[in-house]
Amino acid sequence: MTTQPDALGHPDPGRYLSGGWPVALLERMAFWVRRVHHGGHLLDLGCAEGALLSCLGERGVGLDLNPDRLRLAADKGIRVCLGDGGLLPFPDHCFDTVVSMEVLEHVPDMSAVMAEVHRVLRPGGNWVISVPNVTLRSWYEMWREGRPYYCDEKEHYREFSPVRIPWFKHRFMHVKELERMLRNQGFEIWKRDGVRYLFPQWFFRAGWLQRCIESSNMDRAWSSVPWICLFPYWRIMVLEKGGA
Average pLDDT, stretch 147-176? Predict the structure, then answer.
């Protein structure tokens, strides 16, 4: 028997008690939220256990569709709300900033979520998102082995890639298509960033050199190098709501 997905697309909300996010991703997301959020109301859409709001130290609202995760977030002193990203239980223009860390890959209808975020943001407000992204290493491994690499059909509706990957049944969405959808919903892309750049194992023969090149300290350098900057493990985009 096939389990019917819930409103935000998870076959079983209880499967996603992740237990924690990589520090490098949390810190980089927190950096960009601090750059754009200067007081006012903040929503963490898909807050899980509240790791990002805890890292920010902000009095924001965490929304998730999993009550178990929300209880863990509430234990940290975070204001929580049980809800669906495609039908947010908030009035129009009530948030100054929205953040969604590793959410859109789980959502069956991204357009609905984008429209709802646009609705609840004030004009000129910001949406900071991160999504998983095909790296140079995973792209090479998929080409070499002829099988999907770093993707989970049971958890993700799609993966995001800076290059076309037509070889597998599991869907890879080109990031340009994602950006087109965001623009169509009224968002302007203010900043692109990335966390963790992974290279094919043969790229650097010396193990110590590869560990250095792939360290979080090198992220800022790689994110400014043409072509390579397209392949972070986690892609970050800072968006601004256009219009009056």
Answer: 83
